[in-house]
């Protein structure tokens, strides 16, 4: 399923931040006991040494996730560079480079204490200056989502060398949910303070604080990291080396896994049609865990500027005409659920329950088209629309073909268009020259970061990919989203998000199609991968392999 | 003409090739009659194996599209794209080749030949990819891309032929009689290099079909059109669980290209009279 063009985010919404820091200490204690236990299942004591080979595709443009949200970049970046916190399966932050944190009662400042004795791979000390520099000069300016996450940070004060205070213009609950290593890695100030960060040579050979050090990048062949012997978490990592082999073809990855040449691969490393074979193979675990912080959805984005598509009956008709259960069987081989909201079912209580539903009902669709004033011509055609699909893999094309056939049955003639990624982005997000668009996105557990961008009228910005391109603008939706993004009270925030879902599932500027289960395939010899919801994007300090 | 056909028929493989080609052409022409439902229509249960259901003798793909309908309509698009793009390539190639051969030595001729060489230094398929990515994939763009990469070898061939024919006495006679140059090329020279052009043309059609399949395989064909290449491309991920998704369009492609090659060989022998008589003699 190839690359994603979208961005991940960590999250722990719904917990008061003051409370969070107390709970996080408990987590830390729990983490200590856990780390003495085996990572995976109930296997024995972690074994030191060994090389873990993984499959990687496509080749990432750089290895620093502070400047891009490309999935392969962040999968590699997290082994070398760390974030201030990590997250548990309950989405509550756990200490990493920061050891404790506290949000002021008014929500306008967040104080973090940093871990002492941490060194960069080049021997320099890690200090509060690195954190302040990374947030203000790198993440807030260059990261595709960091601009949103840190938009309300006015300054980062450094009272001493191991504490920082984020001063905010408004409360911003999304910050504490977004400090993980794969969205907000901390960079060394001494290497990035001069020159253009995007052209920094360290982007291809990072210096971090993480459990692994950069060793070698053989272009087109492999990327190799080695153990960081002076990692702050003593005794870790367990592995000597990480080798990421570039394997561009799904059938090749499947063969490499079965031959034991790579022990771990994801997300969606093999063709969906082959998943069943791996599920039945006792040597592998097909893991659905490890995607909880991102989650994945497939949706049909609609251009409301089109005179006919601006009619709600037509959008409802399109929704009723697509048999999404059949889509799940035919395209996703069962690895998906029918979705009824822009926020996936996996998001737990953020997902609203009482939403309008649009079951597969072609007769209803026909009736809606009649009421929309779109009568069938003599050949049965009511109107012609264009359908685009994100060039991220075969599944998107198959979905487009599936929708084409579904809509033809109710008299909507569809022309499927294929573009390369650059043209696709220009066509949809710059020229707004499209009718229907099959897209996939990370909703993330924080709707203010992952979902708001597709519905908020102010997120629409010509040329910015993966935001509101529908031309959708509803003052009520804007109000709900804006309030939710500054509401520190979890219950009130949840209410706002529920109201938002009810609203957009009635107005339907976007048709959510399915919630996708992304999977990783992990050999049973590998342990400690799924300890946290970062999964294959975690730092791998706890990962070990048995003989 | 009759002589040509009987010489052609002397070679059994050529007759077999021609029969195969006619069969595929008939399938292509009759596709809308045999399979009136659009080939993209999801009318069968998905992933039906060949022979599993009498209604869908060749099985169905992952979306439940009838493979037989796909193959028949695929024949239509393969032959159509192959012939139209080859016709365009041959017209361009013959025109430029004839000019360059007849006016060898002129400034324009050497400029044109440098262009031909430029085209020939680039791998054809990569060049076609470039042309497609300049526009968005569609039926017309595919034809343009294939024609763009296929004309240079024809131009070179025709130029060489014209160059040698130009020296012959009957051309000199025509010049002496005061015939105008375009007329000489059209009436005197080109008919005499028809044999190599015809032979090359059928090869060009075969390679155009292969190029189109390669492009569709990579997802750069017209997404609204069912082609053998796109069927192979989409079936590829199921190779280990449902290999017939790839094998059926693959076999269709193989047979089509094979038939074209056999016909080419037969034509080559039939048009080359001396070779034929020697073989008989």
Task: Describe it.
The complex is a heterodimer of chains A (547) and B (281). Among the domains of chain A are: 157 residues, Alpha-Beta Complex (Dipeptide-binding Protein, domain 1), CATH 3.90.76.10; 221 residues, Dipeptide-binding Protein, domain 3 (Roll), CATH 3.10.105. Chain A is built from 16 helices and 21 strands. In chain A, the strands form five sheets. Chain A has a seven-stranded mixed sheet with strand order 8-9-10-1-11-19-12, with helices on both faces. Chain A has a six-stranded mixed sheet with strand order 14-18-13-17-15-16, with helices on one face. A four-stranded antiparallel sheet of chain A has the order 4-5-7-6. In chain B, helix 1 crosses helix 11, helix 9 runs antiparallel to helix 11 and helix 10 packs antiparallel against helix 11. Chain B is mostly helical and 281 residues long. The two termini of chain B are 21 Å apart. The longest helix of chain B is centred in the first third of the chain and has 36 residues. Chain B has one domain: Orthogonal Bundle (MetI-like fold), CATH 1.10.3720. Chain B has twelve helices and no strands.
In quaternary terms, these chains amount to heterodimer
The number of strands of chain A is 21
Question: How many distinct helices of chain B?
Answer: 12
Reported for the largest beta sheet of chain B, the result is: none
Q: What global shape of chain A is seen?
A: globular
The helix count of chain A comes to 16
Largest sheet properties of chain A = 7 strands, mixed
What is the helix/strand order of chain B?
HHHHHHHHHHHH
**Total tally of structural domains of chain B:** 1
Helix fraction of chain A, binned, reads: 25-40%
Strand content of chain A is: 15-25%
Mean pLDDT of chain A: 90
Output the CATH homologous superfamily of chain B: MetI-like
For the record, what CATH class of chain B applies? Mainly Alpha
CATH class categorisation of the domain at 296-516 in chain A: Alpha Beta
Strand content range of chain B? under 5%
How large is the radius of gyration of chain B? 22 Å
Q: Do you know the CATH architecture of chain B?
A: Orthogonal Bundle
SS elements, strand count of chain B: 0
As for the CATH topology of chain B, it is MetI-like fold
